[in-house]
Design a protein that fits this description.
Elements (H helix, E strand, L loop, with lengths): L2 E6 L8 H10 L7 E5 L2 H9 L4 E6 L5 H8 L16
Antiparallel strand pairs: 1-2, 1-3
Helix pairs in contact: 1-2
């Protein structure tokens, strides 16, 4: 089942209390926070109320915390191989 991946990109500091209440309802408490929610009309309406503050992607399924953290890890670009020393 498809889901919304909602990422808070801008802070709600200094915005009306209603706006901050919507962010709290969505579970977005700090910048960079990511939440996966079901695609329902109620969530879509709340997301539209804060559309300037969030980034929304449609993903095929909700990811667990471990799966999401695995997607954030970058490739270091190199591999360290163990050296074997053959001294005579």
């Amino acid at each position: 089942m498809s889901a919304f991946r909602v990422t808070l990109q801008r802070s709600g500091i200094g915005l009306p209390k209603k706006t901050n209440a919507v962010l709290k309802y969505l579970g977005l408490t700090h910048r960079g926070a990511v939440r996966y929610t079901d695609i329902t009309p109620s969530y879509a309406t709340q997301i539209l109320r804060v559309k300037e503050l969030v980034k929304v992607d449609i993903v095929p399924r909700r990811l667990t915390r471990q799966e999401h953290n695995a997607t954030l890890k970058t490739n270091s670009g190199y591999v360290v191989e163990k050296q074997t020393s053959e001294r005579k």
